[in-house]
Amino acid sequence: MKNPLDILGKEGVKVQSLTVSDQHATLLITHQQQLIAKEGTAETNDNDDQATTTTTITSTYTDNNVGQDTSTITSLLKLTLQPFHKEILGSNPVISQEDIDKGQIPERNLLDHNPITSEEIISFLNKYTFELKSESGAEYSYHSASPNSNSADTTKQDESSGSISNAISKFGCFDVELISPASPYQISRAMPTLGHVLINETYHMYSTVVQPYIQSIIDSGSLSWINNVVEGKKEAERLLVNHEEFVINVDTKWRTHPPPLTTPRSEWYNHPSTSDLYCLGIVKDSSITCIRDLRGHHIPLLKAMVKEGLAAIKSTYGVQVENQIRIFVHYQPQFYHFHIHFTRLENEVGCSVERGHLVSDIIQNIEMDSQYYVKRMLTYKLKKGSPLENLIATHISNDEGESVSK
Question: Is 339 assigned a catalytic role?
């Protein structure tokens, strides 16, 4: 499994800021690897970067050396942070604030990489030790970052130079999510928000635009990490239920959960962090991609997930589940392999009205009509300029053009 420092140590690595707030930062990391063509195939010389990735932000280009080319590997580094980290981690933006304010599509208006600030960000991160907390497969891993013992002393000694990194005189620990390699879909999700639009998706729009988009993501192989989770190859330390049809895991969004790798499960019971409770149920049948695929024959599966999930939460954490747990589905979901969310009522992450669908409502809907989600128009919001929003906008424009011509 990759460590952030291994990637940051690559020759020619570049770091740019995607989004930065007082609580979170997402960084885009790029570096090159040599590919040597042999009998019409390409093999990598870098064992750390065996997965192939292409993105809308970076491109593949040919080296001057005969028989070799260089591909760009992209990664995302997501950090929780203290406000005093904000200045340096946001110092090399991909998109200008002016373009964000104007709602410009990010892929068309990328800022040039600034090598000086990139090096300052790398130097800042190199002052930390990254300890693996959990991993979900080839591209996802979760770490805790703590300052090296000499970081504070080094910073104090160098403050007089006046650079951004040296101005950071206080260091704190933070959580880190590493996605490497990162797919175009993952990078698009991490881009600065240029505003949102509300989509009224008919089933015709779903079948002609959204479903092919979902299939393209599945075909890209970017969801392979989910198979590692449902098969128990990854995140075993987070597993609460392993049913023949699904698994229930501690969600990685539950940041305050005691470290699953090192904390005995007996200490999870009545842990103070249960107010942030966040668990995830994932079906093993990969043919169910989202709420649109649900039919009447899935009712026993949904009821079993609810029953088993609540029982595991009560026995593991001591939470009274009868009136404390919200169980819902996202549409659009974060990934297209059907899953349901279990959260404590105090935890409102991800439950916005235009995205969340209570599982109890879903069950009632398909009990009344097995084809409910074939017939129903679903409303949700999308980021402006995201790949799916662009496809839907084109579809709507074409439909309007056809209507006018008629």
Answer: yes
